[in-house]
Design a protein that fits this description.
- The structure is a single chain.
- The chain is mostly helical and 295 residues long.
- It has three domains: 8-66, Orthogonal Bundle (434 Repressor (Amino-terminal Domain)); 69-132, no CATH class; 210-295, Serine Threonine Protein Phosphatase 5, Tetratricopeptide repeat (Alpha Horseshoe), CATH 1.25.40.
- 72% of the residues lie in helices and 0% in strands.
- It is globular and about 70 Å long.
């Protein structure tokens, strides 16, 4: 069986284990012996490919984290930021043409990580420029998700792909399918700081689908949990949107006017605090009856 021999693996494994507050026994449970973990961390033993993959899944990190590929990972991050910026600016045709050219020019899975990333944006943009329908896009994304689950495990990309699938279903009014995918996402492990922020964002998006599907109680529970997580994690980036969404849930539940008003007032305060003027404008316009004191 192939083995990794990088001296960085033991140090990385120890750092990640401690970050997750796991003992060597906890980490080894069901995977290997505690003694083997100890030997890997001390640098006296090299893990097999299969063992390292199993450990990466237990620790919810890509297998590449254990390897000394700093330059490659930085390049991948910059590529993702570049493509994401174009996507947010709705440069769909530009991304489609660029990704098509890149994917056609690559042979034998050279640079697998960036190839998979290009495929993710390629399928989404192919749908946006009417090269494929949403069902085909979903099928391709599901295949891509399987590759990230087996060939190159990456919880962040798995969450991103599955979220895209859920949103595609929602956009095309297949709400029950969207709910099923979101429920699958919520059952994933979110035990790192970055993934917890993802979970807050997913809870917000999921709650909107639930409201469209007239399930306000479930939506409200998601939002309240997300608000608690934001406060505990001291992350305010989505707190205003969460309180605004909570107000929408309370409206659909026909809660008392005072409670709804107080919720929208909190959302408005947070938008004001964070200089989110567009959101302030939306609240003042769409929910004027609940925040009449605002000028």
């Amino acid at each position: 069986m192939d083995q990794f021999t990088s001296p960085q693996i033991g140090l990385a494994l120890r750092r990640l284990r401690k970050k997750h507050n796991l003992t060597q026994k906890d980490l080894a449970n069901g995977i290997c012996s505690q003694a083997e973990i100890s030997k890997i961390e001390s640098g006296t033993h090299s893990p097999t490919v299969d063992l390292l993959f199993a450990l990466s899944r237990r620790l919810q990190v890509p297998i590449a984290v254990f390897l000394d590929h700093t330059e490659q990972q930085n390049s991948l991050r910059l590529l993702d930021e570049y493509l994401l910026s174009k996507f947010r600016n709705q440069e769909f045709n530009n991304i489609y043409q660029e990704s098509k050219h890149i994917l056609l020019s690559r042979k034998n899975n050279v640079d697998l990580e960036s190839t998979l990333l290009y495929k993710y944006y390629h399928y989404l943009c192919a749908y946006r420029v009417d090269k494929i329908d949403y069902r085909t896009c979903i099928v391709e994304l599901q295949i891509l998700s399987d590759k990230y689950s087996t060939i190159h495990y990456s919880p962040t990309m798995l969450i991103r792909i599955k979220s895209a699938i859920a949103n595609l279903y929602s956009e095309n009014k297949s709400y029950q399918h969207s709910i099923n995918v979101y429920e699958e996402i919520m059952n994933l492990n979110f035990d790192s700081d970055d993934l917890l922020i993802d979970k807050i964002r997913i809870s917000y998006n999921f709650s909107k689908i639930l409201l469209d599907f007239k399930r306000p109680k479930q939506a409200l529970k998601l939002i309240e949990d997300a608000i608690d997580q934001s406060l505990n994690f001291k992350d305010m980036s989505l707190l205003g949107q969460l309180f605004s969404q909570k107000g929408a849930c309370l409206e659909q539940l026909n809660s008392d006017i005072q409670t709804i008003s107080e919720t929208y007032e909190k959302a408005y305060f947070l938008f004001d605090l964070l200089n989110m003027d567009e959101y302030k404008k939306i609240i003042k316009t769409a929910k004027a009856e609940y925040i009449v004191s605002k000028t």
